[in-house]
Amino acid sequence: MGLLLPLLLLPLTTTALTLPVNTTLLHPWQITRLSTHSPSGRPGTHPYSRLSFAIADPNTIVLSGPTPGSSGNDVGFPPSAANCTVWWMTHGEDPREGGWENTCEENLAEGMRGKWSFRVVEGSGEAGRGVTTDFGLSVTLEEAVVLGTGGVVSLKFEGEAAFKVGAGEEGNMGGSCGGSGVCNWGLKQESVPVLVKQTLVGMECVTGTCEEE
Ligand SMILES: *[C@@H]1O[C@H](CO)[C@@H](O)[C@H](O)[C@H]1NC(C)=O
Ligand SMILES: *[C@@H]1O[C@H](CO)[C@@H](O)[C@H](O)[C@H]1NC(C)=O
Questions:
Q1: How far lies 194's CA from each of 100, 187, 197, 207, in Å?
Q2: d(CA 80, CA 56)
Q3: pLDDT of residue 136
Q4: Other C-beta atoms lying within 10 Å of the C-beta of residue 81
Q5: pTM here?
Q6: Where is the signal peptide (predicted)?
Q7: Which of 7, 77, 85, 182 allows an S-S link to 61, with CB 3.0 to 4.6 Å?
Q8: pLDDT digits (tens, 9 = 90+) for 127-179
Q9: For residue 54, which atom of ligand 2 is closest to its CA?
Q10: How many C-alpha atoms does 71 have within 13 Å on its Cβ side?
Q11: DSSP calls for 124-139
Q12: CB of 25 closer than 6 angstroms to any ligand 1 atom
């Protein structure tokens, strides 16, 4: 209980910022890999389904404006990438119904450059609403950096994309189901990368001084 109060109070002490981030210049995120799997349901098998994808933000965002105490050194947000996966029990709640917020895994060799997370949402519905064959992804990237003043700026971006199995231009995914009932779907080669237009939904000074007085 002791920890709860400070955490709840934290948002009240943050400040909305007007740092110069020109989002019209941002390149969209890229989904470079995506696949889904559903099991056969045969005796002795394990009835788990899976959805996984790789996403990258190619942008370097430099806070080159009036960031106090920066003494000429630009600070900002480098490109980052992550692998994202969700598993679920096929005969239980699916990730859309659960509304689960799933955390992605970054390449830690490059250092932690942001926190990627995603939810599986409804897709177009045109290919039958199957959670492995017709769905959407709502992806969030939160990035934070320490300024020369010791102040901490955090940015939050969101983007959405839709995926569905279909022939020709009808769908961006293809694949097949085996005789056993196992199905594997993935992005068609010509659909790679899927571009995801991100929106800056939040920018705050989490602690300290982030702007010139
Ligand atoms: C952002 O960049 C675009 C493209 O260069 C430019 O047209 C626009 O005026 C810029 N916006 C701001 C707020 O600087
Ligand atoms: C994602 O997974 C692939 C295959 O395992 C790996 O090569 C790549 O480095 C991973 N990317 C990140 C950002 O972790």
A1: 23, 9, 10, 36
A2: 6
A3: 97
A4: 19
A5: 0.85
A6: 1-18
A7: 77
A8: 788 999 999 999 999 999 888 888 898 999 999 999 999 998 889 999 999 98
A9: 1
A10: 3
A11: -STT---TTTEEEEEE
A12: yes
d(CA 173, CA 183): 12
Query: What is the tens place of the pLDDT at every residue in 43-69?
Result: 999 999 999 999 999 998 887 555 555
Give the position, in ligand 2's atom list, of the atom nearest the Cα of 110. Answer: 13
Closest approach atom of ligand 1 to CA 25: 2
Give yes or no for residue 18 CB within 6 A of ligand 1: no
Q: Tell the burial category of 34 from Cβ atoms under 10 Å away from its Cβ (0-12, 13-18, 19+).
A: buried
Q: Ligand 2 mean position to 191 CA, how many Å?
A: 20
Pocket probe for ligand 2: among 83, 104, 141, the residue whose CB has the most ligand atoms within 8 Å is 83
